[in-house]
Write a structure and sequence with these properties.
Elements: H1 5-25, H2 30-41, H3 52-73, H4 76-81, H5 83-107, H6 112-122, H7 127-136, H8 143-171, H9 175-213, H10 217-237, H11 242-254, H12 259-283, H13 287-292, H14 294-318, H15 323-332, H16 338-349, H17 355-377, H18 379-386, H19 388-405, E1 413-416, H20 420-431, E2 436-440, H21 443-451, E3 456-458, H22 464-469, E4 477-480, H23 485-498, E5 504-508, H24 514-519, E6 524-527, H25 528-543, H26 548-560, E7 568-569, E8 586-592, E9 615-621, E10 624-627, E11 640-646, H27 647-659
Parallel strand pairs: 1-2, 1-4, 2-3, 4-5, 5-6, 7-8
Antiparallel strand pairs: 8-11, 9-10, 9-11
Helix pairs in contact: 1-2, 2-12, 3-11, 3-12, 3-16, 5-6, 5-8, 5-14, 6-16, 7-8, 7-17, 8-9, 8-11, 8-15, 8-16, 9-10, 9-11, 10-11, 14-15, 14-17, 15-18, 16-17, 18-19, 25-26
């Protein structure tokens, strides 16, 4: 089997499908599933894939596309708006952690090159795991969430010089040679960054403009891959890491106006390509060595988490973060990340890590990643346990301030979220006038609003005590203005637990989770996309001369009936009308009547549309469309019957109209 690369790929895909499916059901991180696949099929597992060339090729491709996708998501604007967190907190964390781990490695007897690689790798945390978990917990805009994001952005920036460092270490022998290699590599690196920035600015935009004007998705995707792989090849030819080129290519494309289209095009492949890299990481792990050195590996993994946690906590406190915020930030970032694994994998390729010690360290790094989702998930509980006194005091003071300042308030509105939407709602409430209390997790926004005299407080609206402090027992309504589904669900569950009857209005971006929000207890859900459609349609009708009273009546009717008029849609190529949580799960379908079809010659009332659970919206004859046809209407040849209903019912009705069977 070792000589058949196609069989290797089929084998990897087959096992990956099984393991990732199981991990999804168990809410296990998919990254670890891919690593397990690599362990199973690799040379240290069942040995189904043993050829070093194949492993090397898969690893290089996986790393290239991993770095490309991370580079694509890298946002310079986000970095600049958080520059204090990024360049202050982030730089201090990376350099402090790296130096301390280097010192520990020196005492442990690691040679210089190995020590540099390990210190660099272990100083980095997992962007993918941390951001995903914080987002799902609705903590991405919290104080510890923003601190974590700032540090992660700087870590991503540091990937560029670190990717240059690995090949330079490999080509050097002796201290002077190392210095010269590093200087040469960094000069090349700066040159590459400048050249590629110029290419990105002056060549890529015109190129992608021409490609986009061709309106060919295939050509667009090919061009993206050409740019990414050409960039990787260029840096490799200059004696640097090809992954550096891929990362820079992602950054270049990420800064163009075509970024979102590129993200959309590569999204179907992105998870697979990331998975491919983690499979190759798993191939480097030896179960035999893990069992042989089990306690050493566990000790190293725990040491990584403790050392990084202590350093990040100390750095955060130096930047005047409250003890609770510093603790939650440190717990969230205490693992080794994807870039760390990339550096260690590259170090194996360049033989900078000895096989046995390197495998122990790599396995320990993977174990720290395995624990990471749990650490991030329970960062609040762990902090409360470790830091009970000050954390409880901080929370208590926060609740006390909210409660004292609103002690006499009643029949008010609670705004959960004070972003653009929340602020717009507050202006309407001011004019009404209606009293309100707003809760938000952006400390800067809260401070600005407070200074302006608004009743806006820093607080997590998903916490019962915060809602009680805001007077939910005396409020007459709650509105959730967050666009984040996970945050809305978390808040909804809390509200319904303490106040089952209070009206709750929820904003959502689109209809994709509308039914889930209603089931969770939302009184009304307002999807942005539907409201935009209603506003566009009403403005259009007024522009073409429709009476304002009629337009107002129609829009009121749509809102009154909870968008029922908008339920049925013509499905697109990539729509999934069978998704149980889609409100637009009813589809519109047209059935063309041919000469020998069963329904031809029959009246509408003679056909069991009610039994088929579909509605006849119209019958089109030639260029004439008859809306809501009379039940006495007789079906003719070449009639186009427009029916709507659930996808499976529409399909069954189509079959019945053609054959008379299927009831």
């Amino acid at each position: 089997m070792n000589d058949h690369l196609l069989l290797h790929i089929v084998l990897l895909l087959g096992i990956a499908v099984i393991t990732v499916s199981i991990s999804r059901r168990l809410h296990f991180p998919p990254i670890l599933s891919y690593i397990i696949v690599g362990i199973i099929v690799g040379p240290y597992g069942f040995g189904w894939i043993q050829e070093e060339k194949n492993i090397k090729l898969l690893a290089e491709l996986g790393i290239v596309f991993l770095l490309f996708s991370i580079g694509l998501e890298f946002s310079l604007s986000q970095m600049l708006t958080m520059r204090k967190q990024v360049f202050g907190l982030g730089s201090m964390q990376v350099f402090s952690t790296g130096i301390i781990i280097y010192i520990i490695g020196w005492f442990a007897g690691l040679d210089n090159n190995t020590n540099i690689v390990v210190a660099s790798a272990f100083a980095l945390s997992s962007t993918a795991i941390v951001i995903k978990q914080l987002t799902e917990q609705a903590e991405i805009q919290s104080r510890h969430g923003r601190s974590a994001i700032g540090i992660l952005i700087f870590q991503d920036i540091m990937a560029i010089p670190l990717l240059i460092l690995i090949p330079a270490l490999a080509m050097s022998e002796g201290e002077n040679a190392l210095t010269m290699s590093l200087v040469s590599a960094f000069v090349k690196g700066i040159l590459i960054v400048v050249v590629m920035h110029a290419i990105g600015r002056y060549l890529l935009r015109p190129l992608f403009h021409e490609v986009a004007s061709a309106k060919s998705s295939e050509l667009f995707t090919l061009t993206v891959l050409l740019v990414a792989l050409s960039s990787a090849a260029l840096t490799e030819e200059m004696g640097l890491s090809m992954t550096l080129g891929a990362f820079l290519a992602g950054m270049m494309l990420g800064e163009t106006e075509y970024r979102h289209q590129i993200e959309s095009d590569i999204r179907p492949f992105q998870d697979i390509l990331l998975g491919l890299f983690f499979v190759t990481v798993g191939m480097l792990i030896s179960i035999e060595r893990l069992l042989e050195h089990f306690w050493i590996i566990i000790a190293v993994a725990v040491s990584i988490i403790l050392v990084k946690g202590v350093v990040i906590y100390a750095v955060a406190r130096l930047f005047n973060k409250e003890p609770g915020v510093a603790m939650r930030t440190s717990i969230s970032l205490a693992q080794v990340g994807e870039f760390g694994l990339v550096l260690m994998t590259l170090a194996f390729t360049y033989r900078l890590l000895p096989e046995e010690e390197g495998n122990i360290l790599l396995t320990a790094a993977v174990i720290s990643m395995a624990i990471a989702p749990l650490l991030v998930k329970f960062n609040g509980n762990i902090t409360r346990f470790i830091n009970r006194g000050s954390y409880a005091k901080s929370q208590s003071e926060m609740e006390k301030v909210i409660a004292q300042e609103n002690i006499y308030l009643s029949n008010h509105i609670i705004l959960c979220g004070f972003g653009r939407v929340g602020q717009t709602v507050s202006r309407f409430l001011h004019k009404a006038p209606e009293n309100f209390v707003a809760l938000d997790m952006d400390i800067r926004r809260v401070t600005e609003a407070n200074n302006a005299g608004e009743r806006v407080y820093y607080g997590d609206a998903s916490k019962e005590r915060i809602l009680h402090a805001a007077g939910i027992d005396k409020a007459k309504a709650v509105i959730i203005t967050f666009s984040d589904y996970h945050a809305s669900m978390k808040i909804l569950h809390t509200i319904r637990h303490i106040s089952p009857d209070i009206p709750v209005l929820v904003r959502t971006i689109d209809d994709s989770h509308l039914n889930e929000l209603l089931e969770a207890g939302a009184t009304e859900v307002v999807p942005d996309t539907f409201e935009s459609s209603i506003m566009l349609s009403s403005h259009l009708l007024l522009m073409v001369g429709q009476p304002p009273s009629k337009v107002l009546r129609e829009t009121r009717e749509i809102r009154k009936n909870r968008y029922k008029l908008l339920e049925n849609f013509y499905p697109g190529q990539y729509d999934n009308p069978l998704d149980e949580h889609q409100i637009m799960n009813r589809v519109i379908h047209t059935v063309l009547m041919l000469d020998k079809d069963y329904a031809v010659g029959k009246k509408i009332k003679q056909l069991p549309f009610d039994q088929l659970n579909v509605k006849v919206d119209a019958i089109a004859r030639g260029h004439v469309r008859g809306e809501n046809p009379d039940v006495e209407t007789r079906i003719r040849v070449d009639d186009r019957i427009v029916i709507s209903g659930l996808a499976e019912d529409v399909e069954r009705a189509d079959y019945f109209l053609k054959t008379g069977n299927g009831l």
